[in-house]
Amino acid sequence: MSLLEVTSLGKEFDGLRALEGVSFSAEPAQILGIIGPNGAGKTTLFNLISGIYPPSSGKIHFQGESILNLKPHEISRKGIGRTFQIVRPFQNLDVETNVLVALGQRFYPSLWRSTRSYRQPEILQEAGVLIREAGIQSFAKHQTKNLPLGIKKRLEIARALALRPRLLLLDEPSAGLRYEESTQLMDLIRKVCAQGIGVLLIEHNMHVVMDLCRRILVLDHGCRIAEGTPEEVRSNPLVIQAYLGKET
Amino acid sequence: MISGYVITILITVAIYAILAHSLNIITGHAGQISLGHAAFFGIGAYTSALLYTEAGLPFWLSVSLAAIAAGMIGALLGIPCLRVRDDFLAITTMGINFVVEAVFLYIPFFGGAMGIGGINLPGWFGREMSKPEYFILILAVFGLLLLVDYRLGRSWIGLAWASIREDERAAEAMGVDVVRFKVMAFILGSMIAGLAGGFYAHFLTFIMPQNFGFPMSIVILSMVVFGGIGTRWGPLLGALILGILPEISRPIMEYRTFVYGLLLMFMMRFQPEGLLGSESLLMKGIRRLVPRSAPSR
């Protein structure tokens, strides 16, 4: 049984096919790269897995259990964390409080427990560990909106890790980052994977994908056109055609 | 001895403070705009008035039931309401206000345009409570509510509200059940507004549908925005200033809603965080005078 099993997933928006018959699976402690030209349906795929909207067809099983009709907060509680292509930190809260929101996941379902204070020593300590792991401890008390993009991106990962996920969906984590920032981020992703967490990584930066992933899924116009090792994908004529166009 | 006039203003301001505080839970803490908060103020006032005059229940019971009724109706109306966002929510809540006012006005049971009279101040120790005593009672209730607010602000509920206010989509990805926490804010805010309504009815001794119309909702919202949306003391400050302002400048009494509208526009343009918002001119000035590390919200 795979960690995540996606079977012939499809999504239509008012007749526009964003995704069609996409199948793949993800395993623990592995990074699966998802690449494809703009508009290939990569982010749509993430939004379907995390429950932002329901698929038009197909199945999604997480740890052997269908998550098709679950709401986003239920899916996150099942153990799927995510980041956003355009970062969405809680801008007016500081970095620590951002992480605390995610740590509250285990308290929110119970009315009684959610009336308790969130400033408990053991919770703060847990947040501290996550923030340190992401390497952003010197910004812990900073209001998020003033931080550089690289820090915000690492905060989003720290926040997703606070959910104690089994699977992490990363939507273009290195986009817009300087070279050093993106290498730091790659180290962080490797560390996450080494903890046994499965990672789905949408990425435009081929250098990052080829370096991090042992398996890559290629989407184009909503369809899966290839899957394999970086070498296989790189030499696949369909992939070359999707990226560079057909020779005429 | 304080004059009857002053005590009347004080009681009105204290009721406004509770009311603004209750809207602050919905709009300030959970970030959900409501343009119909006067409806729940009215539901509380009418419930309390009817239970007192028709069913003969004592003040304490009628006011408590008023809060519960407003909370229940708040939940009922809140559930469909809070599935819509932003501008749709503003219009839906506005609609609720008009419907509730129309119910009071056109259903004879609620006294129609004549309203309900014969409501009295509560009694205790075998006599009717004096107005200063009533003022202290309301003040005590407000103090209690501030304590609850403080407690909630530090709780997981407060944190969930903050995350929803900041970014709903990110909040639900963090395991926050957005609809549930919004409805919670709506119920609590409506309950407290209902409580304020009960106090108001027993103070005015006579209530009419117009007391709880859309203009009143704007007045409440102005107080919250003016004082500092989402802050703990902002609603009180807003209620104080906007409650006393028309009294000290009688001539503008007639133009109250007009002035409030202008103030609302002015604040939104130049001081969107209100007088007590962390980035407001007032708070910046205070920080300059009393230097200390910036408080994290």
How would you characterize the overall build of this protein?
The complex is a heterodimer of chains A (248) and B (297). Chain A has a six-stranded mixed sheet with strand order 6-7-8-3-9-10, sandwiched between helices. A four-stranded antiparallel sheet of chain A has the order 2-1-4-5, with helices on one face. Chain A has ten helices and ten strands. Chain A has a single domain, classed as P-loop containing nucleotide triphosphate hydrolases (Rossmann fold). Chain A is of the alpha/beta class and 248 residues long. Chain B has a single domain, classed as ABC transporter involved in vitamin B12 uptake, BtuC (Orthogonal Bundle). Chain B has twelve helices and two strands; from the N terminus they run ααααββαααααααα. Chain B is globular. Classes of the chains: A alpha/beta (248), B mainly alpha (297). Chains A and B meet through helix 2 and helix 3 of A and helix 6 and helix 7 of B.
Question: What are its keywords?
Answer:
heterodimer, A: 248 residues, alpha/beta, 6-stranded mixed sheet, 4-stranded antiparallel sheet, 24% strand, B: 297 residues, mainly alpha, ABC transporter involved in vitamin B12 uptake, BtuC, 2 strands
Number of spatially distinct domains of chain A: 1
Question: How would you spell out the order of helices and strands of chain B?
Answer: HHHHEEHHHHHHHH
N→C terminal distance of chain B: 42 Å
* Outline type of chain B: globular
Q: Work out the oligomeric state of the chains in this entry.
A: heterodimer
By CATH, the topology of chain A is Rossmann fold
Strand order of the largest sheet of chain B: 1-2
Look at the structure and give the mean pLDDT of chain B.
Answer: 89
Give the overall shape of chain A: globular
Q: What is the second-level CATH architecture of chain A?
A: 3-Layer(aba) Sandwich
Major β-sheet strand ordering of chain A: 6-7-8-3-9-10
Helix-and-strand structural type of chain A: alpha/beta
Major sheet of chain A? 6 strands, mixed
CATH topology of chain B: ABC transporter involved in vitamin B12 uptake, BtuC
Q: Radius of gyration of chain A, rounded?
A: 18 Å
Under CATH, the homologous superfamily of chain A reads P-loop containing nucleotide triphosphate hydrolases
Helix percent band of chain B: 55-70%
Alpha carbon gyration radius of chain B: 19 Å
